[in-house]
Specification:
alpha/beta, Rossmann fold, 2 domains, 9-stranded mixed beta sheet, two-stranded antiparallel ribbon, 35% helix, 13% strand
Amino acid sequence: MDSPAYQLPDGIRGRTVPIRDLDMHILETGDSSSPLLLLLHGFPELSVSWRKVMLPLAALGYRVVAPDQRGYGRTTPRTGYTRPISYEDDLQPFKMINLVTDIVALAYALGYRTVSSVVGHDFGSGVAGYCALIRPDVFKSVVLMSAPFTGPPSLPFDVDNPHSPATEQLTSLAQMVDVALAALQPPRKHYTAYFSGPDANADMVHAPQGLSAFLGAYFHMKSADWPENDPHPLGAPNIANLATMPHYYIMPLEATMADVVQRGAPSKDEAERNSWLPDAELALFTAQFGHTGFQGGLNWYRCMRDAQLSRGLTVFAGKRIEVPAMYLSGKKDWGVYQTPGAAEKMRYDVCAQMEEEDFVLVEGAGHWVQQEQPEQVIAHLARFLNKVKQ
């Protein structure tokens, strides 16, 4: 995980743990006898995304562990092959229920039957949410970061009642959104549709501007540093409102993600002023994704959009997160609002114990909140963890 120009802070160590069919790479710090905190990254991130908050969290009295999740970083299949994951590989291992099982297995492998809190950022928020929803006996609290967790898919309800509203569409919502976006002038596409396609990995790994410049622009454009980020509730959930979001969410139909972020790429001066992701730290991500590609993480999106691969989650239809929950995001993060109504559903329906003070939007942060404003994140996590400590 280290690069020649960067060393992890003293006290954070990396190693590999056998987990089910994986050799899972983890970063860890803190006393091995202390209560466990698990930190789950999103896309396109790694365990090292938590580098700025791990030691302060351990100082609160926790053992802090951040894995490279399935398909990412130095976590590899135990079958022995080391080639990068390809689009044609089996998608079954990347189903949400399997990602959650990985995290339960990680806690067990580390010698814990309970986890004080599971903290997930971006797509990791979904994994953390399902961990808390499915295994409240293991995960005693949950922190959802950037991506609101809206719970499991629904099942048709009261279908024998002729007056009951329809509860299931024959065409998936994702498919309807794809068609409607393509019909706009100019035509658009949803970023998850692009990420689920066969070309996204190569487009990004072999971006015309180079991989490092691509990642630097992607991180910059979704951060508080990009002046065009002005997130706000979208109002009525319709295609016209959806299409007002930045192009990194609602893309021009023929554009690649490399095309999109090039428009918002930081100037030389902006890049030099970036204190939260300087070149030496950006090099960590560039080196790792240059080695593995992005397909492992992209497969998570493919499973999310595939109704057949998500069908197993309907067994939890109507189930809520009953353990204490917190939502933490940057004030300049469009992720809060990218799905109209998602934050409200999370706060007032899906999470039974999310207090008003625990819905937090951090000043001066965009999407990469724990990297952009680590001190504020630590303060909010410390308050929440102290409150829910058992």
